[in-house]
């Protein structure tokens, strides 16, 4: 991995309804008292950067299944997530990887901070994001991981055959994934602007933002593992030409079970 950028990665809650009326807003969803209590129990407001799982070469010593499983139950910090993602990415078929561009897991969080916004856009500008079918953007906000996917990012927004769209995969949908909509659309618009594209904010608003009903996590620590598994399965199964008429494809609530995530993460922890 390259040299780590020295950036303050503390997560500060930011209002997603900015004062600038020109930016697109996301509507807030009311939740019941029971849902609110469950959210508090999952401690979503606590950062996911408390437990560091070192990513290192497999030890020659025998490690019990119980010990390895206990490590996998820790929350993933951004460094561990990127390390595991590098391992995962190297094991995926090359022809599948070629359909994707992926962004660093901290870039979206940094973009949401005005002081880092231009820097992040300069990093994104160096990426060939318009030449691949999909752009993967792992997100960690408010201590919770989710996966943003831009489909046909480089196509015209008026295309009828390859319609650009946005997927947001979240293993805790009761937390209202669409609270990030305004920031996602602003991010999309600023990328187009940085790349010299003609799309305006009205056109960005017309791009479908889809939140498929994917399998849900069972506690407050699994979100990072779920995002890694989302990436693993999506890259392997994504069609070469995503058609919005065939949505949600394989992304349904029975896509996989929690045990499959555990087995996947255990393999990933030991280099697959």
Automatic annotation (TrEMBL):
UniProt domain Ubiquitin-like protease family profile: residue ranges: 29-234
InterPro entries (UniProt xref): Papain-like_cys_pep_sf (IPR038765), Peptidase_C48_C (IPR003653)
Gene Ontology MF annotations: cysteine-type peptidase activity
Protein's UniProt keywords contain Protease: yes
Gene3D superfamilies per UniProt: 1.10.418.20, Ubiquitin-related
One Pfam assignment: Peptidase_C48
Keywords of the record: Hydrolase, Protease, Thiol protease
Domain of life: Eukaryota
One GO BP: proteolysis
Family to which the UniProt record says this protein belongs: Belongs to the peptidase C48 family.
Protein known as: Probable ubiquitin-like-specific protease 2A isoform X2
